Amino acid sequence: MALDTQDLYNRSLLNGHHWSSLANKIYVMPREDFDNSFGSNDLQSITDIVSYFVMQHYTIDAPRITKLQRYYLGDNDIHYWANTKQARGKADNRIASGFAKFITNMRVGYMLGKPIQFKRNDEDDSHDYDKAEELLDDFNDTNDEAYHEKVMKTNLSTTGRAYELLYAGQVTEDGDGHAQTPDVKMRAIDPATAFVVYDTSIDRHSLFGVRYYTVDTLGYSGKSISYVDVYTSDAVYHFKTEDGVNDRSADYQLIGQESTSFGAVPLTEYINNENRTGDWESKLDEIDAYDLAMSDMANSEEDFANAKLMINGDFDFSDNMKTLIGPDGNPLTDKDGEPIKVPNISADDPFIWLKPSITPQPSGGNTIIPASAGYLTKELNETGWQTYIKQLASDIHKDTNTPDMTDEAFSGQSSGVALMYKLFGEDQERSMQESLYSRGLNRRLQLLGNYWSKNMEIGSSDVMSVFKPIYQPNLPKNNSEITAMLVQLSNTSLFSEETLREIAAQVTGVSADAEAKRVEEEQQNDQDNPYEFDGSPLQEANPKEVDAAKQKLGLSDNPQPVSPQNLFNQLRGGK
Q: Which is nearest to 244 in space by CA: 7, 451, 84?
């Protein structure tokens, strides 16, 4: 994660603005410029282009992304605000709220808590379709696709964008020494260290993608090295530089170049919305205000515990006095040269003795000041503070369409309709984000089709277009209600067995396909073994007695079903 880079981390802190007004823009360049440089493999021109975009991203975009990542980790800006409280001996608590992580985790869990299912929308049983389904299932299992989607969605919710890289694994050989097609792997790339450059057409086709990172080797080599990987539709360039990535004039050295088989840029950019913003990015000000309010209340409570004791009157400590000592270690004296003595009071004393103070007046008589003691504190408006923080929290939940789980509407007594209304805003966000996420998934399927067709695994990449991602919102479920509904739907005879099994999967956890296979196997076993004792030898039974029983019942090698009544009559010796 880019948070490990100290320079980038420091530049994500407060400087008067959240980030540059140029941050979060789409990188574009004319296709003819790209073709002139990359088409001719002009390394100097390529490095000039790449170094420019890397510098732009590192100096302008990366600080914004890093700041949002800090908030997700709970390292909010409250930790870096400057004040003089500690210098003045005041409490200086810095309490960071967890709104960012809560909102992101809610959004990820609601949309992807249940794995995405890639369903075929074509009933064609040709070899190509079956092979493509087999390859896709193996790809998803090998790459732990369900977890990968959650990482991607976390990046999307936090920073507004996510990057996915497809690449080929190592070449292996079979038992005969023949090279096998390398497996395809995918990784989620840190948004703070990756970007895609598009052409200027209205369709915004990908020209190339970049992933860069810095390895700090100061401990053993006295320098740090930055690596830059550039991905085009047919090649990958590997560069390194010791001059840093924030300098366009940095010396980029080509350390490797290889071809690819994906037929397009294998680095895919996913977006969270059309503005490419995070789910809570617009509420950073409210989050900061909430952090400040919580911290100030904690400071007030701590300052109250350390409040100064105010005493009126005189101490009645005539027999327990101590001499004040100056900085030089000698006793302090009054104008008559006598040591100055004060009551010997300790903070550990359970009580102190006081007496009224008598002050003579110039006009005669005395003024008596009654003895009293109390702490000097400021009045806390706790009711107003509670109202303030509740309003801030309510605004954050409302404006991000994130349900507040402490709301009474989410109690166990609430109706399903009431809960659906509370989730209405969340559902609108999910619907839009699913559509945008499916664009990235469809591009992944197209890249896989290109790779497998080029390596002769399937006949054409077009077969991948029959797979569509199916999302299932991850909501609390009531198994009894689902079962009752399933029975009602089954009694109508309007729904297929496959549809009913898909509904039942919510309760059983067994997919419709797996359940159909289980039913088929059980039916086959019932046909092969109509009599329970005929499938295998009975324990401790005499084979001759078993054969005699079979003959008495009229059983043959291909027995016909016997009704319970006939079986009962046969066992009784009747007809």
A: 7
